[in-house]
Amino acid sequence: MQVCLASQAVLGPGLADWPAARAVLQGRAAYVPGPAADPAPTLLPATERRRASASVRWALAVAQQALDGREADAVATVFASCGGDGMITHQICEALAAPQGVVSPTRFHNSVHNAPAGYWSIATHSRAASTSLGGFEGSFAIGLLEAAAQADVERRSVLLVAYDLPYPEPMHALWPVAHPFAVALLLDPPGSGPTAFRVALRPGAVRTAWPPTIPAGFQSNPAAQALPLLAACLRAGPPALALPYDGDSHVAVEVLP
Amino acid sequence: MTPLYITGLAIASALGEGTAPTVAALREGRSGLRRNDFLDCALPTWIGRTTGLEDERLPAPLAQFDCRSNRLAQAGLRQDAFEQHVARAAERHGPHRIAVYVGTSSSGILEAELAFRHREPASGALPADLSFRHTYNLYSVSDFVRQRLGLAGPACVVSSACSSSAKAFAAAARAVAAGLCDAAVVGGVETLCLTTLHGFASLELLSAQPCRPYDEARDGISLGEAAAFALLEPVDRSGDALALLGYGESADAHHMSTPHPQGLGAVRAMRAALASADVAAQDVDYLNLHGTGTRNNDAAEDAAVRAVFGGGVACSATKGWTGHTLGAAGAVEAVITLLALRHGFLPGTVNTRRADPQFGLRLQLRTEAHPVARAMSNSFGFGGSNCSLLFGRA
């Protein structure tokens, strides 16, 4: 499958936006650690913004930037995350462990894995098709395959959004993600832009060397597996790369010259 | 889309294990719902519990996947020689050319819920034997199914609340069309858990009686649990030519837990499914409704179905038989729809006594023998996530 990358956005500690991340990936600026500012996606009404959880705010912030002013109703969305919303899972499990077992209704409807997709549709008034996927360490590659398949088969533009935020303790000890990260890629059908790449699933659990300018701690975040691909699209990394998928296979990406 | 033939079908639900007891229950009017007896949950509601999971054992090499969700998945896979059909498909195509797309909304979250009752008092730590990867991570169920079946193709979990496993069919069809795989195991797995029982209770959407979709006196849902699977291949192997003909997906752009009142997102999904199959609305013989039994859901879906079909198609809601199996509902109702096509009957809407007189769609109250050539199944979820599937003989 072949797709074109029209636009991208990232968010993480020390990677405040795409220009900042691009400069680090290209080696033009050193990575400076520091907490990421809590994103405030302006497209959500103020009441919804307060009600939306951190993972929804992170996902929508990058989605809004990468949409780059296009009509949202004409762009399908694919949301991919390994852990979904760990804070809500934590709060619900804690409430259920108490004698009364009372769950907050807002928390419950925010607990679905497609909460970011739902808020996106409400905020942008988009009724376009949307899907929400989960994998393990391969969550980004799983989302990339689905988004590329949509661009290829349905011949439509697709906004791929991948995000994972560290779980709070005690669940963090069982899945120790070091840094939060969110990324969005606006993908068009082949032949519609200068930056194009091929995507395929291949046997073997290989993965490309991590971009040397990005702290290794980001490797623990499934969404941050987008960074080697973004480096390749900037010609700041090898053009052929292997993204983690699962224990037996990888997603091979080749950025076309 | 190019039709994908159904070369294997399996189900385990409150109606029993396998397609034969499912068809028998539908024909004989036996609902699978019972008074809530799930764990120590005291909520006054009815549930569609799958029996025997307490005694289900996973094979030793996959023991770390042990949890109710994966036990239920295994109980589903064991039915109707499904694993043998998959093994033969793997011989034909190669294990790396068969995808696994499973829909679930909660996977093994029950394990985390129970583990939070047993935190180490001083540190707050969770029990040492709890595994994120193998139980309460969403992907656990797809990983388990893939390894249990010995497959190595594309695999993922689709999790969009109650449309999850309908969307798994759509994603798998795209994966075949894009050349990522030659065949796909698609399905849905959802167990009862405390998050969903107490969550729907908090939204005041749980009925205290067996749910009565589309009834004038409907007052909420009954939750259920189930595993349902289909094997999709580009060439017919079973001889009955049953196939996935089309799919349609949309979003509501309205509210996180309430459907659009006129069902505008649902209309878009149903029309997209018809267009994808190149089938006209009047050529559809049966529609399996999403039909949860809440006041709002059924009213919105009625408006949407009338907009697309004009009241001409026989409709039924089957959640009174199985309970609302959430992330598995799309696959469960796809299987029921395919059984209606295969055996020639219109499933009834059990528990429902009198259709809401304000509604305009044609509700099938009792199961009735009737030839069915093309049938649609609707699945709509929280977040306004909609998916319609169209099945028929290709």
Protein model, in words:
The complex is a heterodimer of chains A (257) and B (394). With 257 residues, chain A is of the alpha+beta class. Chain A has a single domain (2-193), classed as Thiolase/Chalcone synthase (Peroxisomal Thiolase, Chain A, domain 1), CATH 3.40.47.10. Chain A is built from eight helices and eight strands; from the N terminus they run βαααβαααβαβββαββ. In chain A, helix 3 crosses helix 6. Helix content of chain B is 32%, strand content 21%. Chain B is built from twelve helices and 17 strands. In chain B, strands 1, 2, 5, 6, 7, 9, 10, 11, 12, 14, 16 and 17 form a twelve-stranded mixed beta sheet that branches. Chain B has a three-stranded mixed beta sheet with strand order 3-4-8. Chain B has a two-stranded antiparallel ribbon with strand order 13-15. In chain B, strand 1 (4-13) and strand 2 form a beta hairpin. At the A-B interface, helix 4, helix 5, helix 6, strand 3 and helix 7 of A face helix 4, strand 6, helix 7, helix 8 and strand 10 of B. Strand 3 of chain A pairs antiparallel with strand 6 (155-158) of chain B.
